[in-house]
Write a structure and sequence with these properties.
By secondary structure, the protein is an alpha+beta fold. It is built from two helices and six strands, in the order βαβββββα.
C-alpha cells in the first residue's frame, strides 16, 4: 500500500503553540483525526488574523478549502504541548496550498503534517475567483 508523503515547503507563514485538551482525544485516548483538521483550521485562522484578515475577507476575496490531506506520524495525548507551523506551498490560478506541521515540544516528535488546497471564492456569486494581486504582493513581501 502506497503511503502519503508530504514534503514541507520552505516559506514559513506562521508559528504558534497549542496544548492538547481532553476534547481533542478520541476513544483510543489519543489525538483524534478530526481534531487534527480543526487544529490546522485554527492555524490558518491565526495566520489570517495576524494580518487583519478572515476566511470571509482575505486579500479582497474569501477563502474556501478545496481539499485536504493528513499524514499521522505519532500519537498526541492530553496535555501535550505542540508547536504548530504553517507553510506556503504552490500558488495557482485561483488559489494556493498550505502545509501544516504539528510537533510535540517535549521530545520534538512529529505528530502530524498536512496540506490543504485553498481557493479564492466569491460567496455572493458562488464561484471561484482568480488569485488576487494583493495576495501575490503579500507573498512577494514575505518570500524575500
Amino acid at each position: 500500500m502506497e503511503r502519503l508523503k508530504l514534503k514541507l515547503p520552505e516559506i514559513l507563514l506562521h508559528s504558534s503553540e497549542v496544548q492538547l485538551r481532553i476534547d481533542d482525544m478520541n476513544y483510543g485516548g489519543h489525538l483524534s483525526n478530526d481534531r487534527v483538521l480543526a487544529l490546522f483550521h485554527d492555524m490558518r485562522v491565526q495566520w489570517l488574523k495576524e494580518y487583519g484578515f478572515t476566511e470571509l475577507k482575505a486579500f479582497g476575496s474569501s477563502l474556501i478549502m478545496a481539499d485536504s490531506q493528513v499524514q499521522y506520524r505519532a500519537e498526541g495525548f492530553q496535555g501535550d504541548q505542540l508547536k504548530a507551523n504553517l507553510f506556503l506551498g504552490e500558488i495557482g490560478h485561483s488559489g494556493f496550498e498550505l502545509y501544516y506541521l504539528l510537533i510535540r515540544t517535549s521530545d520534538q516528535k512529529e505528530i502530524a503534517r498536512g496540506k490543504t488546497g485553498m481557493i479564492f471564492f466569491n460567496y455572493d456569486e458562488r464561484e471561484t475567483e482568480r488569485t488576487p494581486t494583493d495576495f501575490k504582493t503579500y507573498i512577494e513581501g514575505i518570500a524575500l
